[in-house]
Write a structure and sequence with these properties.
By secondary structure, the chain is an alpha+beta fold. The chain folds into 2 domains: about 90 residues, 2-Layer Sandwich (Alpha-Beta Plaits); about 140 residues, Pseudouridine synthase I, catalytic domain, C-terminal subdomain (Alpha-Beta Plaits), CATH 3.30.70.660. The chain has 5 helices and 10 strands; from the N terminus they run E-H-E-E-H-E-E-E-H-E-E-E-H-H-E. Strands 1, 2, 3, 4, 5, 6, 7, 8, 9 and 10 form a 10-stranded mixed beta sheet that branches. A hairpin with an 8-residue loop joins strand 2 and strand 3. Helix 3 packs parallel to helix 5. The protein is globular, with a radius of gyration of 19 Å. The two termini are about 25 Å apart.
Length: about 250
């Protein structure tokens, strides 16, 4: 019996998130089905974290204890032959028996993609958020720069545990214009609150559309949790389909 680290990629559109649910199609559920075909007898695989319904991934991480007597490459091939077409394992690695994909992670990286266009675009809208009115690129960059550092992000998400902190350390927050009317947001942090990236994107777009002053955005990040009993920002989240979990980083 050995512990394996599995790196997963999936199109989240037809999954009810990553975490296993009764009578719902999930990433964890499909992975466990495939493992059962390889004589896995465990109760549950471990995951680095959960992604919401509709969110994609190129670097989700799971771990599983499996009695596998062949090479890692053969496990990779076997799993991919059993998984559905909208999901794959991109890497398999044998790890220490105490490896935990969630608690051993030192940071996580996400990408959010959007485009600005008045009319619908059914192809791009599978993986990008269509935004209108258009955004001001300079204001997107200004807002992203305010996110860098250690702040109380209680205006940007909810606690992952009832008594958990809402303080997070963001080490990368960067917008790039990838085409004439497309933008990509890359963000990395030691950890994220629930729905934090989608809320971040929603509020940055509001800033870039002139709905929220950059100064108010910055003041919220400077406040302590005790001063945030009521958010000054409009409610809302960027749609799930624009978000991808890119990678989970571990100490080498």
């Amino acid at each position: 019996m050995a512990r394996y680290k599995l790196t997963l990629a999936y199109d989240g559109v037809n999954f009810f998130g990553s975490q296993k649910q009764v009578n719902r199609r999930t990433v964890q559920g499909e992975l466990e089905k495939a493992l059962t075909e390889l004589n896995w007898t465990g109760r549950s695989v471990l995951m680095s974290g959960r992604t919401d319904t509709g969110v994609h991934a190129t670097g989700q991480v799971a771990s599983v204890d499996l009695d596998w007597t062949h090479a890692d490459s053969k496990l990779l091939k076997a799993l991919n032959s059993l998984l559905p077409a909208d999901m794959s394992v991109s890497a398999v690695q044998m790890v220490d028996a105490d490896f935990h994909p969630r608690f051993d992670a030192v940071s996580r990286s996400y990408r959010y993609r959007l485009f600005c266009q008045r009319l619908r675009d059914p192809i791009r809208e599978r993986f990008l958020w269509r935004v209108w009115p258009s955004v001001n690129s300079d204001d997107l960059v200004k807002a992203a720069n305010k996110l860098l550092g250690t702040h109380d992000f209680s205006d940007f998400g909810s606690r992952t545990t009832p008594k958990g902190t809402t303080v997070r350390a963001v080490t990368r927050a960067e917008w790039t214009q990838t085409a004439e009317n497309e933008w990509q947001f890359e963000v990395q942090a030691n950890a994220f609150l629930y729905r934090m990236v989608r809320r971040m994107v929603f509020l940055q777009v509001a800033v870039a559309q002139g709905k929220i002053p950059v100064e108010a955005f910055a003041r919220s990040l400077a406040k302590q949790a005790a001063d945030k009993s009521r958010s000054i920002f409009p409610s809302g989240l960027a749609p799930a389909h624009g978000l991808t979990l890119v990678s989970v980083e571990y100490k080498t």
